[in-house]
Design goal:
With 373 residues, this protein is α/β, with parallel strands linked by helices. The protein contains ten helices and 18 strands. The strands form five sheets. Strands 1, 2, 3, 4, 7, 14, 15, 16, 17 and 18 form a ten-stranded mixed sheet that branches. A two-stranded antiparallel sheet has the order 5-6. A two-stranded antiparallel sheet has the order 8-9. Bound molecules: iron/sulfur cluster (2 copies).
């Protein structure tokens, strides 16, 4: 099966008003071309961004889509879940304040997993790693959600887009925990300055910081849940997820984290008719979860829309590769996602011109209108 991915190019200089108009037009084209029946209420799955992160997408990027829904008399809200680790998005109360401080005030907010992850539902999927998977319970009240994703790098999954937003973003804490189990970072003592910043982010009390002399810094792997927060926060790159052995597993066949991530996405999509809109802009090396300033690793590409989370991620990934930026773990992610029926790695990229005019089949990163990996 070949899925259609609609695409409008943008640059760093595209005015925000045009980005809003383009995203609304992309959504409308997808709805019309694929004869999608929009529901009376269609939530927007978003990411509110961690404080100090400067590359997350603010609500201004979504105003075109919000206005589009309003103009069609469709109710909406922002939906999100809280994260596994410490910081300002760990529980609903803090997360709400973060959302508000980042300007997400246009719609009501629903935290799908309750106050701190306790409101979950088990979705039966019967896959290799998970028989059931815990998603935020409130998601199950909607059979159509617009999944708004930011395409960029990610410390664990190689890149983050629609699949990661579906998986990690819809998972309740128990689901996130199940995905991360087995990822255990290490502290490189020659790089650790004993600044203790990592301690602020570890909710598991797993980090032990030495004195820089006799006493070494180390991580208690019996307590560590592998959330990756200490890796992201360490300003001296002293915490590494990878030993030589684990790196081989990460890039090689049988990467369990990537497969678990894909299975989580399968659970979030199962029986639903979600719509995916991905913004490949401010393409940072790391996730919007990381509370640090990052510089984009490549120029903005554009906005993508599809009903297929695999096709849309592959289109973003291929275009980035064609422009010289290869994000890790792509082939493994796409082949496993297709194997378990999450979507199709074969897609046709249809370019919707930014200033109106006729749509055309765009050349993909692999030089063909329809690409099969
Ligand atoms: S943040 Fe990094 S450098 Fe600072 S104490 Fe933790 S591991 Fe060491
Ligand atoms: S030590 Fe483990 S649980 Fe604590 S922040 Fe690091 S990865 Fe997360």
């Amino acid at each position: 099966m070949t899925s259609t991915v609609y695409f409008t190019p943008v640059t760093e200089h595209t005015p925000m008003s045009e980005i809003q108009a383009m995203s609304a037009r992309l959504l409308d084209t997808l709805v019309q071309d694929e004869q999608i029946q929009l529901r009376p209420t269609v939530p927007l799955k978003v990411h509110f961004g961690e404080p100090k992160n400067v590359t997350f997408l603010g609500p201004e990027h979504y105003l075109g889509i919000i206005d589009y829904l309003k103009s069609h008399s469709i109710d909406s809200c922002f939906m999100e879940t809280s994260v596994l680790y410490g910081g300002q998005r760990y529980k609903k109360e803090l997360h709400e304040k973060t959302a508000e401080s980042h300007g997400f005030t246009q719609l009501p907010i629903i935290f799908a997993d309750g106050e701190a992850g306790e409101a979950y539902a088990e979705v039966e999927i019967n896959k290799k790693h998970f028989k059931t998977f815990k998603v935020g319970r409130a998601f199950l009240g909607y059979d159509q959600i617009i999944v708004l994703s930011h395409f960029k790098g990610h410390i664990l999954s190689g890149f983050g887009g629609a699949i990661k937003q579906l998986s990690m973003g819809f998972a309740a804490k128990g689901g996130k925990l199940a995905m991360h189990m087995g990822v255990k970072p290490h502290i490189k003592n020659r790089k650790c300055t004993q600044c203790r910043k990592c301690l602020e982010r570890c909710a598991e009390d797993a980090l032990h910081i030495g004195d820089g002399k006799k006493e070494k810094s180390w991580i208690d792997h019996d307590k560590c849940v592998g959330c990756g927060a200490c890796v992201a926060i360490c300003p001296h790159k002293a915490v590494s997820l990878f030993t030589v052995k684990s790196l081989a597993r990460f890039i090689g066949i049988g990467n369990p984290f990537v497969e678990k991530l894909v299975e989580g996405a399968y659970a979030a999509q199962k029986g639903k008719q979600h719509i995916y809109v991905s913004f490949a802009m401010r393409i940072a090396p790391g996730c919007d979860c990381e509370g640090r300033k990052m510089k984009p690793v490549m120029k903005d590409m554009g906005i993508f829309a599809s009903t297929d989370p695999v096709a849309i991620d592959k289109a973003c990934h291929d275009m980035a590769a064609a422009r010289g930026k290869k994000f890790k773990a792509g082939p493994k992610t796409f082949s496993y996602a297709e194997a378990i029926g999450l979507g199709s790695g074969s897609y046709a990229l249809v370019e919707i011109p930014s200033q109106g005019g006729d749509a055309s089949i765009a050349m993909s990163g692999q030089g063909a209108a329809s690409v099969k990996f």
